Amino acid sequence: MATRTRNPGTDWLASCAPDPVQVHRSWDRDELALVRSGALWVAVEAAITPTVTAMQRIGPDCLGPVLVYPGADRAWWLLAPGAADLLADLPQLAVHPAGWGLRCPPADRYVNGLGWLEEPDGSGQLTNPAALVAAFGPAGSTRRPAGAAR
Asked: The whole model's pTM is what?
């Protein structure tokens, strides 16, 4: 098997697991790796179309990793632990508890239909929860794009 160049985002994801070596082994076999949420981030689940719209509203400065599975119309945002309280009033978002397992590919490629719409960059930057609330909240969900018909 060809050796792949290391990617900082991939290394960061692996470092979030108790056994980073096992995570890399899964990825080397082109398999998804199970990385559990907890100390560094929690996963927030949403449908893909509203996720893409929210990503455009949030912009790159406040955006962290976003994993997508188009075949199931699912997306997972990585946010700092403790963000659940801010998101409680948004029924279109499901905050998974610490210890929940996210099956994910490495940062730089799709595996089994899952891939990063916004890749982890290795810095540990996560989506700003206030920006996510603004993008998914009532004001964000009713805002029309510029030039849209009324």
From this structure: 0.88
Q: Which of 71, 58, 69, 70 is nearest to 126 (CA)?
A: 58
- DSSP for 86-122 reads HHTT-TT-EEPPTTPEEEE--TTS-BTTBEEEE---S
- Of 57-61, 100-104, 128-132, 140-144, the range with the lowest mean pLDDT is 140-144
What is the mean pLDDT of the segment spanning 50-64?
95
Measured distance CA(30)–CA(115) in Å, rounded: 12
- List the domain range (segments joined by +) for residue 99: 8-142
**Largest alpha-carbon pair distance within the chain?**
55
Assigned domain for 62 exists: yes
